[in-house]
Each structure stands twice: as structure tokens, then as C-alpha cells.
From TrEMBL:
<dbReference type="InterPro" id="IPR036388">
    <property type="entry name" value="WH-like_DNA-bd_sf"/>
</dbReference>
<dbReference type="InterPro" id="IPR049874">
    <property type="entry name" value="ROK_cs"/>
</dbReference>
<protein>
    <submittedName>
        <fullName>ROK family transcriptional regulator</fullName>
    </submittedName>
</protein>
<dbReference type="Pfam" id="PF13412">
    <property type="entry name" value="HTH_24"/>
</dbReference>
<comment type="similarity">
    <text>Belongs to the ROK (NagC/XylR) family.</text>
</comment>
<dbReference type="InterPro" id="IPR043129">
    <property type="entry name" value="ATPase_NBD"/>
</dbReference>
<dbReference type="InterPro" id="IPR036390">
    <property type="entry name" value="WH_DNA-bd_sf"/>
</dbReference>
<dbReference type="InterPro" id="IPR000600">
    <property type="entry name" value="ROK"/>
</dbReference>
<dbReference type="Pfam" id="PF00480">
    <property type="entry name" value="ROK"/>
</dbReference>
């Protein structure tokens, strides 16, 4: 458990206090002082700023411990909103969410598999405007836009995976700058797995002292380590590439330059490729075998597996075992107790992935005799990246003094 001082170093004090109120549900000033390590005078000042900004509310009185009854505080969820967008191959999924992570409105538009960056930047302002107008929320309550994008920052020499994934090379800074200029809103772009981890932390009501791993499956596998009320980003914000953990040293070459990576052995495109090698399975499941349709083909295979089709079950369980093998290593290194599976890849057959992961960890993890493992599916896995992107826009307002002032409207 991080100390109060380490928590304060991780984020601006106003953001820390607001985060403690959010995770506490209802909490008093005295409790905030005890949990944050700040003085009661500092807590009173910050709480007054938050109250004046309408971001929190006084809700009543708690139980007396000998003196006067303490006033309870909670986040005013509908006081601020943010938009999140997940740039998926088959669809761009938008959500508009409040401070509590509740979804107010959604919108789905054409995916980016065959779009250019300029095409996307031309249409996004109109799509955002449509979403905001349909939601009915006041425009001045919007704190910004978060965008969840497959890929990583500043990877430079790592080659593109194929023509369907050119958008992993899009310049995130260009997206931030041009979309901010065209909408007048603060824009932040982040990897979809990091967004999913932030969203899971935010909407699950997790404490700022909790630690857990979020595994995201969309185009490929990614993960985010939630620790100390934030997602660990590493030296260059390129942490979480579980898809490029080596599972089979002598396995096929991966476009990243490695061999036997989880991505090349078990990602949705690989599951579809394996299915197409099985005589008769393509026709029986109605697989298109078109490169641009591999996501819908994967969902058909996953649905067949959930319905008990033996060949589909074998394909999905093989993918799940490869993932679980990677998670054994991460569990041994990080001493994990909780793993959350999220993302659209787990939307149909997530129960199979969770079961296999749990079984493999219980059988092979080094610390299996020290404690139990919780492996569960996220409740918001279908829209987790978009929701996480919205909470990213909110979360970033808690991270520094300038952003905290923006959240407060000061």
C-alpha cells in the first residue's frame, strides 16, 4: 500500500482529494485528512474549491465520534462530462460519460480500417457534435475528449502489422492538436489498453490504494497495471505490450521482430486464420475469410464456441491458454491477486478466457499457495476502451494543477 506522501507525489492534491471522495462514495473532511496525509486546513481549502466549482456536494451528516457530527461529501456526478472514442477497425464507438463513469449517450460510426487520418479528422467534429446534441448535456459541462487508439507512442522502427492496421502509425499528437482546434475541447489520445485500465479503475469504484491488472483484447492483446490510483506507463508510455511476450521461443515470427509472441499465436486474426485451415468450418460458421472481416469472423467463432461447437471451442481455448501462459509470468513477477478481462474481444467468449486463465494460474503460478487469484470479466468490456477514454479525459484533469483548475472551471 503506498504511503500518503507517495500518493501526493503522484498527483496534484486537489485531484487526490477528489479521487478519494469518488472512491469513498460519501466521506467526511476528517476522513479525507486521515487518508490523504494533508492537514485539515488544506483539506478545508480544497473542499471549498470543489464545492464552489459544483464538482462535489454536501449530502448530510455522519455519525458523531464525540464532537459535532461531520458533514459528508460526495462527487456531483452530473456536474462535468467527457466524451470518449474508441478507434476500432469495424466501428468508431463514442460514449459521453459523467464524473461517475455512467454513460449518458453513445454513438457508433464507420470504423477506421480503410480510412485515412485526414478522413477521420474531417468527420470526427460532426460526429462529436451529433453525440453531444443528442445527449442534452450542457456544453459548458464538458471537460474534454479522450481517444482510445490501438498502437503505441514513439515506436519508430517497429513495422506495421498489415494494411488493415496502418492506423497504429497515425501521429497521436496531430490528432490531439487538430481535433482540439476544430472542437475547442481539450483532447487526449492514449493506447486503448491504458484507457480500458483507467476506465475499469474509475467505474469500479476502486480505492486509490488498490493494485490490479487489466487485460484488454481488441485487435490484439494489451494490458494496464493499475497502481496507486493511476495506470503505470513506463519510461515512454509504451508499457503493457503483453501481446509481444514470447510464449513459444521457436514459434512463428511476429511482425514486431520477435518469435512466438502471444499476438501471433492467439490474437483474433490468428484464431480466424486457424479456423480457415479446418475443412468445412468456414462454410459451417459462415466465415467470410475477407481480411477486412476478420473481426466479425472471430465473433462468429466465439459464439459457436459458447454454443458448444467442438472445433470452435478448441480454437478459443487454445487462444485462452496462450493468454494464460503469459499471465502466469506476469503474476509471478508482479504478485497479482486480481486480473480483469475487458475489451470487445472478450465480449462473446470471455467466460472461456476467464475460466482457462483461472485454471492455469491455480495450477502453475509460483505463488498459488500464498494467496488466491481473482480473474473476472469487466462489466463494461464491450465499450471499455471508449468509456475508458472518456474517464481518461476526466482523470487527466485530476493529474496536475493546470488540469485541476480546468476541471474546477477556475
Amino acid at each position: 500500500m503506498p504511503s500518503a506522501n507517495s500518493l501526493i507525489r503522484m498527483r496534484d492534491t486537489s485531484g487526490l482529494v477528489l479521487d478519494l471522495i469518488r472512491s469513498g462514495g460519501e466521506i467526511s473532511r476528517v476522513e479525507l485528512a486521515g487518508q490523504s496525509g494533508l492537514t485539515e486546513a488544506s483539506i478545508s481549502r480544497i473542499v471549498r474549491e470543489l464545492l464552489d466549482g459544483g464538482v462535489i456536494l454536501e449530502t448530510g451528516f455522519g455519525l458523531s465520534t464525540g464532537g459535532k457530527r461531520p458533514t459528508l461529501l460526495k462527487v456531483n456526478n452530473r456536474s462535468r462530462h467527457a466524451v470518449g472514442a474508441f478507434l476500432g477497425e469495424s466501428a468508431v464507438h463514442y460514449v459521453l460519460a459523467d464524473l461517475g463513469g455512467s454513460v449518458v449517450a453513445t454513438l457508433e460510426t464507420a470504423g477506421v480500417a480503410h480510412s485515412s487520418l485526414q478522413d477521420l479528422l474531417r468527420r470526427m467534429p460532426a460526429e462529436l457534435d451529433k453525440l453531444i446534441r443528442a445527449s442534452g448535456v450542457p456544453v459548458d459541462s464538458l471537460v474534454g475528449v479522450g481517444i482510445a487508439a490501438p498502437g503505441r507512442r514513439e515506436l519508430g522502427t517497429i513495422p506495421r502489422y498489415d494494411e488493415l492496421r496502418d492506423f497504429v502509425d497515425w501521429d497521436w499528437r496531430q490528432i490531439e492538436a487538430e481535433l482540439a482546434a476544430s472542437t475547442g475541447l481539450a483532447v487526449a489520445v492514449e493506447n486503448d489498453s491504458t484507457c480500458a485500465a483507467i476506465g475499469e479503475y474509475w467505474v469500479s469504484g476502486a480505492s486509490a490504494t488498490e493494485h490490479f491488472l487489466v487485460v484488454n483484447l481488441s485487435i490484439g492483446f494489451g494490458c494496464g497495471l493499475v497502481t496507486g490510483g493511476d495506470v503505470y506507463r513506463g519510461a515512454s508510455s509504451n508499457v503493457g505490450e503483453i501481446g509481444h511476450m514470447t510464449i513459444d521461443w521457436d514459434g512463428p515470427q511476429c511482425p514486431c521482430g520477435g518469435h512466438g509472441c502471444l499476438e501471433v499465436l492467439a490474437a483474433p486474426a490468428r484464431v480466424v486464420a486457424q479456423a480457415l485451415e479446418i475443412d468445412g468450418l468456414q462454410g459451417r460458421l459462415g466465415l467470410s475469410a475477407e481480411k477486412g472481416d476478420h473481426w466479425s469472423d472471430f465473433e462468429r467463432i466465439a459464439a459457436a464456441a459458447m454454443n458448444g461447437d467442438a472445433q470452435a471451442v478448441d480454437l478459443v481455448e487454445h487462444s485462452a491458454r496462450a493468454l494464460a501462459t503469459a499471465l502466469v509470468s506476469l503474476t509471478n513477477v508482479l504478485d497479482l491477486q486480481r486480473i480483469v478481462l475487458t475489451g470487445p474481444g472478450f465480449d462473446v467468449a470471455g467466460e472461456i478466457y476467464a475460466r482457462i486463465t483461472r485454471e492455469v494460474l491455480e495450477a502453475r503460478a509460483l505463488i498459488r499457495n500464498a494467496h488466491t487469484f481473482e480473474v473476472r470479466l469487466s462489466a463494461s468490456r464491450h465499450g471499455s476502451a471508449a468509456l475508458g477514454a472518456a474517464t481518461l479525459a476526466i482523470h487527466q484533469q485530476l493529474g496536475g494543477s493546470r488540469r485541476s483548475r480546468a476541471l474546477l472551471g477556475t
